[in-house]
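I'm curious: can you give me some protein's one-letter sequence along with its backbone structure tokens because I've never seen that pairing?
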Amino acid sequence: FKTHVQNIASGREKRNAEWSICRHKYTAPFKNISNDAYLTVKRVILVMRGRTHTFLHRDWGDFTAANEPFGLGDGTTTVFQLRKTSDLGGGATYDRVITKPDAGVAVKVNGVAATGVSVSQLDGSVAFSSAPANGAVLTWSGEFFVHVRFDMDYLPFSLDDKNAGGFITNGSVDLLEVLDE
């Protein structure tokens, strides 16, 4: 999220949420990797032109859904969007829109495997050949990716120690989630 925090003279603060959607940030460290492995990381940085282009990445802390509700049938709507909902109880929730599902997503209607349904790997939309009944609970299970870009235009690293196979390389890259790609 992006929140502007203003401290005021009384010691209190004012907070203004500038973004309503979370953009995840990841740090991917590489430790004691071979020169060949380092060159693979370097090739990805070069092909993506640093921060210029995006690519798909698994958020290893959150990349699966198991019977995750994503819609409620109304008898007329045939297209729905995949999502994951974070809920701590008490009514406050956060929906993470899923736009890049992996192949093999399973969709259920009222707990029964759906037929006549297609899931788009391009945008995460779910299209039913006929509208789910009014009040039908739609759920999905599967894995998904997120679009990210490098949050740097260079590849920081250090050459540490030398072994029989060459230098040992250490470093890390920062990735930033990109929305609507």
Observations:
- The longest helix spans residues 35-47.
- Residues 50 and 167 are 24 Å apart (CA to CA).
- The mean pLDDT is 91.
- The chain has one helix and 16 strands.
